[in-house]
Amino acid sequence: MKLKMTLLIAALTSMTAQAEINISGFASVNGGKVLSGTGAPHYGVEPSFLADYPIVSTYTEDFSFSPESLIGLQVTGDLGDGLSVTGQIVARGANDFDAEFEWAYISYDLNDNWTLQAGKKRLPLFYYSDFYDVGYAYVWMRPPADNYTWQIFNYEGVNLLYNGSVGDWGLSANIYTGREDDTENKLLSDFFFRAPTREIWEDILGGVVNLSHDWLEIRLTHMRYTNKRFINGEPEQWNGKFERDGKFYGLAVNADFGNLFVLSELNRLELDADFDTYMISVGYRFGEITPYIMYSDYEQSGDGDVEKHDTTAVGVRWNFHPSAAFKVQYDRVKDDSFDYAVAGDSKAITFGVDVVF
After folding, report:
1. How far apart (Å, rounded) are the C-alpha atoms in residues 143 and 121?
2. Looking at residues 77-90, what average pLDDT do you find?
3. Residue limits of the Porin domain (predicted)?
4. How far is residue 55's CA from residue 248's CA, in Å, rounded to a whole number?
5. What is the pLDDT of residue 11?
6. Which residues contact 125 (CB under 8 A, 6 or more apart)?
7. Nearest alpha-carbon partner for 74 in 171, 157, 9, 144
């Protein structure tokens, strides 16, 4: 981790004669354990709480700080005349704190409203995708795993951003295209297939529109892509074909009335089956303390094995410092997957501190 961060800083600060360098960071120190659970004996899974699907952040009955603790560093070099370079490195406890580049892209402001970007970025499928790793940016311990469950979360490509307004409404939009080739996908390799799995999403084409006015915010998203997969080096087939097309749809509606707020997100992925997820959360701010409740659900419809699970969570956030928040959350997962539970039922407690700097 130290070497990669040093290289990132050195690469950007070498431009100090021409660029203004901005360095920021974030970190989460989270711990927790499973209080009770059934596990999934057919997969060899002990009683577990799968807090984050893509990176397989898993709590067991042994208390641990590893699953969700992380630290990130972002460096931006402003070259002037609308041109900038951004790099972000994140080290996660779930990956033994092995630092990896999450973002590496250039931006060019075409004018006051339009920005063109190219490089490696977070795939903007969900409302919290762009700042998913920054725990300080949202009220819960984490966005719900039932919703944020897909195995690919980054992509390499180009995107066009718009920021402006329509009447009294704020308007932002993002059109993007690219691909991702994950040579050993962690979720599929370590959890579902228990074998080296290469996951490819290509011909990605998507768009996001975000509207906001006063207390209301609405986000609409759509993406389509082609999926290819290799397990132990052998191509997987779906209905006799070596690829399949997917379509993703998403809607988030948030209402903030000052102290009371309501957050919601609804998503569907159409692949060889329909995958539906939704989340709703309500919270109330008492000064620096915010209690909240949340319910999320995941359901796969189709013939054969069907994945279905939901989570009920209650928690409290305390902003004890201008740049830090303490959180504690209780999660109850009910796994009703047909024939084979994914990780089984569980009850878990987690707590931690999120900081930005």
Report:
1. 19
2. 96
3. 8-354
4. 21
5. 56
6. 150, 153, 206, 221, 223, 248, 250, 267
7. 9
Q: Look at the chain and report how many structural domains it folds into.
A: 1
Residue reference for tokens 């986000």: 219
Helix or strand or coil: residue 176?
Answer: strand
Question: Which band of pLDDT confidence, cut at 50, 70 and 90, is reported for residue 217?
Answer: very high
CATH code, domain with 75: 2.40.160.10
Host domain of residue 296: 2-356
Average pLDDT of the chain, as a whole number: 93
Q: Do 279 and 311 contact (CB within 8 A), yes or no?
A: no
H or E element: which one contains 174?
strand 169-182
How far is the C-alpha of 319 from the C-alpha of 137, rounded, in Å? 11
Q: pLDDT tens-digit profile of 7-52?
A: 555 555 555 556 799 999 999 999 999 999 998 887 778 999 999 9
Residue 1 has pLDDT above 70, yes or no: no
Is 224 buried (19+), middle (13-18) or exposed (0-12) by CB count in 10 A?
middle
- CB-based burial label for 256 (10 Å; 0-12, 13-18, 19+): middle
The CA distance from 215 to 208, in Å, is 20
Give the pTM. Answer: 0.91
If phi > 0 it is left, if psi is from -120 to 50 it is alpha, else beta; for residue 82 that is left
341 against 20, higher pLDDT:
20
Percent of the chain with pLDDT over 90: 87
Q: In the predicted model, what is the mean pLDDT of residues 148-177?
A: 97
